Predict the structure.
Amino acid sequence: MKRTVALLVAVFSFAAVAARAADSTKISGWISDSMCGAKHAGTGAACVKKCIEGGMTPVFVDEGKKAVWSIDNPDAVKSFYGDHVTVTATTDSSKKSVHIDSIAEAK
């Protein structure tokens, strides 16, 4: 019985990891702040930096969907406040959040 339970736990653990990896996607957009969201996409890098220094949190604005996503790991975007970027991220639609796996300036 213990072996069966252990096997089931292992199978479900691997399934959860595989499902999470499948959600990782490449998205282009902007790093903005939680107060302004999509308002400054492309035009307000100085304002974004000022707002984040003032206590707002960084957010990711999906260029294609014009959707604003919270960022689970905000330290990953520190060098990109206000920038147009391409990210590889794991999304969580229920929380409207992304976990940035990699980030680079968009070309």
